[in-house]
Amino acid sequence: MLDIIINPQGGKGKSLKALETVEQILKSKNVEYSVHKTEYAGHATEIARELSKKPNTSIVMMGGDGSFNEILNGIDNFDNVTLGIVPCGSGNDFVKKSGHPTDVAAALDVILAGGTAYCDYIQLDDRRALNVLGAGMDVDVLLNYATRKHGPAKMRYYMSLFHVLAHTRFHKLRLTVDGGEPMERNVFMIGIGNGGIIGGGIPICPSADPYDGELSIVAVNEIKKSKILFELAGFLSAKHVNKPYTEVFSGKKVRIEVLDDSKFEADGEIFDSTDIHAEVVHEKLRIFK
């Protein structure tokens, strides 16, 4: 029995087309399934919470990174649940690192084959993240993106990115990795990566691996504003990690203290906090792989 959770509004119709494909395949193979369509923000979390109370539950996540995040945050009993991943949202960054197919039928084949593995996630104080925890430029872009209502999602994201790069501000933070010495930084942005890719393909934490039990921490420190637009290509090709203004760390626990008015994002969802404690959780989240 497969329990499918899907946002019918996701991907501007893309998710419903993907659901048609999934249902056709499941019916042809006589696989029992149930579809749970979300009706409002946070509904996927509520559905996943109820489903996770049942032993031997297979939840198929259909959507993008935001939907995956909602479902992850709803699981109460990880021992009861195996997650299947069918990417069909406007942003499908996590699967670029997790190794799951982007083709709907191929992704469903992985689930039906029945193989499983354990995937890491990031535990924050009161929430979880599957892909990336970020602050700085990343959040500024998302805030600007929210004001743009027309055009394809990827085009709107890159328009917001160029706007933020042209009107750059830096963010004052204090970073502590694995209980070490606190480091105060003026950052352009900081990414705490489990998956490590944002914005439809920007590899902000290129060495992140969602199976290795480690977090990849990339702090892009203050850059001369006159050079920022010229550095954009480096971000798109992961060359930013080799620049003198970038520091790369690896660890299991990270603390970020806000020393200004910065906000955070977890898998694209913006939230306020002045003191973040993030920790990788290893060998707890079972997925079809």
Can you summarize this structure?
This protein has 289 residues and is α+β, with helices and mostly antiparallel strands. The protein has helices at residues 14-28, 43-51, 65-74, 95-98, 104-113, 137-145, 153-166, 225-236; strands at residues 2-6, 33-37, 57-63, 81-87, 116-123, 128-129, 132-136, 171-177, 183-193, 215-221, 246-251, 253-258, 264-266, 269-271, 275-288.
Which features does this protein show?
single chain; Rossmann fold; Tumour Suppressor Smad4; 15 strands
Helix-strand blueprint:
Elements (H helix, E strand, L loop, with lengths): L1 E5 L7 H15 L4 E5 L5 H9 L5 E7 L1 H10 L6 E7 L7 H4 L5 H10 L2 E8 L4 E2 L2 E5 H9 L7 H14 L4 E7 L5 E11 L21 E7 L3 H12 L9 E6 L1 E6 L5 E3 L2 E3 L3 E14 L1
Parallel strand pairs: 1-2, 1-3, 3-4
Antiparallel strand pairs: 5-6, 5-15, 7-9, 7-13, 8-9, 8-12, 9-10, 10-11, 12-15, 13-14
Helix pairs in contact: 2-3, 6-7
